[in-house]
Design goal:
By secondary structure, the protein is of the alpha+beta class. Helix content is 28%, strand content 22%. Strand 3 and strand 4 (105-109) form a beta hairpin. It comes from Auriscalpium vulgare.
């Protein structure tokens, strides 16, 4: 399933597409909200691995503008719960991810991203 935690790790892998290939732009998405168990330790440990600007952009693309532009110095409960919601409870069921560089479209169907490339696109 495509959640924003997953999206934050995905880049375009089309042959020759090596710059400006992250983050993939979310388009025409249909989302579902699904509860997930809150785990503060996981969130605190995962924050350094996130591309924060890409996460904030993706959240806005799916209609959530609750995250601050920068990671706050104080990781209070309210911030961690909002981050948990954005990363783990917003599910993208349908839509597409588009490379900002080569414009390759990666469709999302039934919550599953199709990251496969045609033979001529493989580098």
């Amino acid at each position: 399933m495509v959640r924003l935690i997953t999206h934050n790790l995905l880049a375009c892998h089309v042959k020759g597409c090596t710059s400006n290939n992250f983050p993939l732009k979310l388009q025409d998405v249909q989302i579902a909200l699904r509860e997930a168990e809150f785990n503060e330790d996981f969130l605190r440990g995962f924050i350094p691995r996130l591309e924060w600007g890409a996460l904030v952009q993706a959240a806005r693309e799916v209609g959530d503008d609750s995250l601050p532009a920068e990671v706050p110095e104080m990781l209070d409960d309210e911030f961690l719960k909002q981050l948990h919601h954005v990363l783990l409870e917003i599910h993208i069921d349908e839509g597409s991810m588009v490379c900002p560089n080569c414009k390759h479209v990666y469709p999302i169907s039934s919550g599953i991203p199709n990251m496969l490339l045609a033979e001529h696109e493989i580098g």
